[in-house]
């Protein structure tokens, strides 16, 4: 087994772990923003609920259905985002976006943690939207929160 195929197997296991035992799946009692997001190409959908405290994400929950990539990405994104400021989230989201679009340096960035398991999506252009679905919903949540504060 080559080093690359061993790494692919590890990444596949991480994706399946998050898909089968998603972190932050469920509903919040009092969300500050609720965003439905759908990928019309494949039918994946996510309902993202966000609770904030000042400029930090206090909690996130998601529900929905779709492929292993979209659901695992939502789990990983949620796990990564809780406790972070919007500025920190922007940095991670940009790095993640770069990674799923093929940036090799981003794919090796250890600050992405489990999110790096989705680096192979870059080889599957039709799956990029699946991987980005939860991140796009989080971006919309921030916009809604900004609109409500103005």
Explained architecture:
With 150 residues, the chain is an alpha+beta fold. Helices cover 49% and strands 17% of the residues. It is built from five helices and three strands. Helix 1 packs across helix 2.
Cα(first) to Cα(last) distance is 56 Å
What strand order characterises the main sheet?
1-2-3
Strand content: 15-25%
Number of helices, counting only DSSP H or I runs of 4 residues or more: 5
Order of helices and strands: HEEEHHHH
- Approximate shape: globular
Poorly predicted regions = none
Radius of gyration over C-alpha positions, nearest whole angstrom: 15 Å
Q: What is the helical fraction, as a range of percent? A: 40-55%
Report on the biggest sheet: 3 strands, antiparallel
Round the mean pLDDT to the nearest integer and report it: 91
Total E-strand runs: 3
SS-based class = alpha+beta
Short description:
With 150 residues, this protein is α+β, with helices and mostly antiparallel strands. Helix content is 49%, strand content 17%. The protein is built from 5 helices and 3 strands.
């Amino acid at each position: 087994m080559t080093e690359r195929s061993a790494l692919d197997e590890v990444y596949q296991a991480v994706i399946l772990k998050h898909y089968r035992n998603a972190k932050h799946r469920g509903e919040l009692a009092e969300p500050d923003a609720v965003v439905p997001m759908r990928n019309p190409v494949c039918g994946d959908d996510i309902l993202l609920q966000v609770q904030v405290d000042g400029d930090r994400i206090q909690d996130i929950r998601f529900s929905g259905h779709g492929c292993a990539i979209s659901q695992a990405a939502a789990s990983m994104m949620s796990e990564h985002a809780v406790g972070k400021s919007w500025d920190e989230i922007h940095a991670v989201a940009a790095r993640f976006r770069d990674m799923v679009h093929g940036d090799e340096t981003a794919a090796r960035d250890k600050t992405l943690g489990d999110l790096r398991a989705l680096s192979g999506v870059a080889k599957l252009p039709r799956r990029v939207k699946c991987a980005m679905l939860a991140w796009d919903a989080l971006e919309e949540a921030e916009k809604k929160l900004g609109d409500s504060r103005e």
